[in-house]
Amino acid sequence: MTDSHQHDAVPMTPDGSGQPASRATTKHVVVIPNSINMVSVLGPGDEHLALIERIFEADVHVRGNRITFHGEPGDVALAERLLDELVTIIRTGQGVTPETVERVASMLRAETTERPADVLSLNILSNRGRTIRPKTLNQKRYVDSIDRHTITFGIGPAGTGKTYLAMAKAVQSLQAKQVNRIILTRPAVEAGERLGFLPGTLSEKIDPYLRPLYDALHDMIDPESIPKLLAAGTIEVAPLAYMRGRSLNDAFIILDEAQNTSPEQMKMFLTRLGFGSKIVVTGDVTQIDLPGGTRSGLKVVEEILDGVEDVVFNRLTSHDVVRHKLVGRIVAAYDEFDARDGLREQGAAAKGRRP
Asked: Which residues does 34 contact at the CB level (< 8 Å), separation at least 6?
């Protein structure tokens, strides 16, 4: 945490109209502990400092390890809290990036009960010097839900980490010997699951649909050990059709791209649950590739299982996109367009009903 701070309320000068301005500003002085590298806080070339000024519309001045904020009381208070969070994150040994600053600011503005530093410092899995952590509040809540519940649904757009974090939790559970195996599955809907019509061996037919799962595995497990784990059945990657008729005990089971299941396939999958197992279902209801007229099992299942004990639904949004920041903006823009388009269609339908 920061060592100390001072603050003074400063009334604003008249606005030139002869009337005093109604808004007041305040000044806070924050002292960063000597043990903290100021470049870590301020960023290379004061990049983080400029970002803080822009986010909170405050004037910021630095002298040594003393940082002075001058602006509206609410923004100055949030900027001071942001510094406290950054110092806490730095003390855990993590680096701070501009994305970190933006995520902490977003959480503080949302006035959540969870501390941003706690969210961003939760280590799920480490491999080859790389640590996998949640990067948003919703991601942490999703990860916590996986810990607490037997069946967890993660629903949200591309890039929100719903599959990646589920796989990290699966590998963590396997390493902790909480389960004996990991089963990763997704519907091969683009081929209608009629894999016999595709050229090549069985693995060559299946691989294009399962490749994203293999790619994520390579981030989490030493690549040379993956073939051995697959050969031993400790990790199984298979199309959803291959789950039929099985009972899966002591396993961490992930169904990816679940929006492309039919209601019957979803029921079949969920009823594979065996003793000592955990299920995570992930999908994006805005990217359904099913043939026209087929209902998505992911859309139907929430109506069916709402309120069922030990089943939880987590929703992630464009704010949780952790790919390139432009991906989040693209997702948000599409959401806005779809909302406007829906309103236009409703308006056109209402006009058509008029006598």
From this structure: 65
Q: What's the pLDDT tens digit per position in 83-95?
A: 999 999 999 888 8
Confidence of residue 348 (pLDDT cuts 50, 70, 90): low
DSSP of 137-151, one letter per residue?
Answer: HHHHHHHHHHHH-SE
- Mean of the pLDDT values across residues 219-230? 89
**8 A C-beta contact, residue 189 and residue 290:** yes
Residue 119 makes CB contacts below 8 A (sequence gap 6+) with 107, 134, 136, 137, 139, 140
Mean model confidence pLDDT for the chain:
83
Contacts of 317 (CB under 8 A, 6+ apart): 138, 156, 157, 160
| 299 vs 291: CA distance, rounded Å | 15
The pTM (predicted TM-score) of the whole model is: 0.73
Q: Residue 322 CB: number of other CB atoms within 10 A?
A: 19
pLDDT reading at 191 higher than 70:
no
The SS3 of residue 183 is strand
How far CA 244 is from CA of 94, 262, 268, in Å, comes to 44, 14, 7
Helices (H), the chain: 38-42, 47-56, 73-91, 98-109, 116-120, 137-148, 162-175, 202-220, 226-232, 263-270, 297-305, 325-353
Q: How many CB atoms lie within 10 A of CB 237?
A: 22
**Per-residue tokens: 200:** 């090549």
Q: How many residues does the chain have?
A: 355
Q: What is d(CA 44, CA 33) in angstroms, rounded to the nearest whole number?
A: 19
Yes or no: say if 261 and 298 are a contact pair by the CB < 8 Å rule: yes
Burial 23-52 (b: 16+ CB within 10 A, else e): eebbbbbbebeeebeeebbbbeebebbebb
